[in-house]
Design brief:
single chain, alpha/beta, D-Maltodextrin-Binding Protein, domain 2, 2 domains, five-stranded mixed β-sheet, four-stranded mixed β-sheet, about 45% helix, binds beta-D-glucopyranuronic acid
Length: about 325
Amino acid sequence: MYRKLTKTILGALAVTALSTGMAFADNWRAWNIHHDGHPNTAAMDLFADLVDTMTDGEVTVEVFHGGVLGSQPDALEQVRIGAIEVGNFNLGPIGPMVKEANLVSLPFIFKSVPHMFRVLDGEAGDIVTGAMADAGVMPLAWVDAGARSFYSQKAINTPADVKGLKIRVMNNDLYTAMISAMGGNPSPMAFSEVQQALKTGVVDGAENNFPSFKNVGHYEVTSHYSLSEHLIIPECICVNTKKFEALSPELQRAVRGAAKGAALYQRALWAVQSEQARKDVEASGIEVIEIADKAPFQDAMAKVYEDYLAANPDMKKLVEIAQSTE
Ligand code: BDP
């Protein structure tokens, strides 16, 4: 109700501003793949509220949840060209568009989530941010997406257990290479199709963090979640670069501040809700398998690094910066 009212008033103001030749409100659309109950959905709603407040209504954001504006690769392209202004993106599907973003898609590149944030807050993060902004998708703030682990009807304790399994991955050649390196059959697929694919046996497994595993019901159609934690992929609140740069410096500061505020909120929510998601899926009967020794998984990724860096020698510097970050 409050938002509806605000929007009506802002709409009226925009007409007045236009007719008097003053600056008028910029109305942005934001893409979010998640549904209610996921931390990013609440954070994106907060982002919209903060933008309204901090820009005094000069910029407004309408968030479309549940991926209704398209799949993640489609939405990325739309933000890149400015057909949608904002997105809460995972950096995985950005890799095929922005090479530097692929740093975060190398399995086990980060030691932990805090390490991932330290890398993003340093020189490597500046390089990734610059490359994404040049491509048209500018990160305003980073949010937490925890670590991704495998789930299937079968317990996965070692890379050998992945052999012969058809595993859904996000759209990125590094993920297909990752599954192939363990002898599995990678199956890139849109997030919205995964539950059905697991249910009908089109795939044998998938990989994700606890909130996504729970939020879209993947846990209802599988039985084992194996804590391989092979990927720690950050997500961003990203904006079309040109739209952002067209704002006055004051409005840019306000929108960036709104994104940073929403990201802090998201990280706090993530900590609580990912723990809760784990408890919920365990309570519903999912067997969560601790993997004490991840070395065999890490060792299996040697070939992924070797092939990737042979084909992309210009990525060596970024990899070295990340690996040498304490
Ligand atoms: C979730 C991410 C979302 C991805 C999804 C996926 O938050 O952006 O689209 O995984 O696996 O954890 O496709």
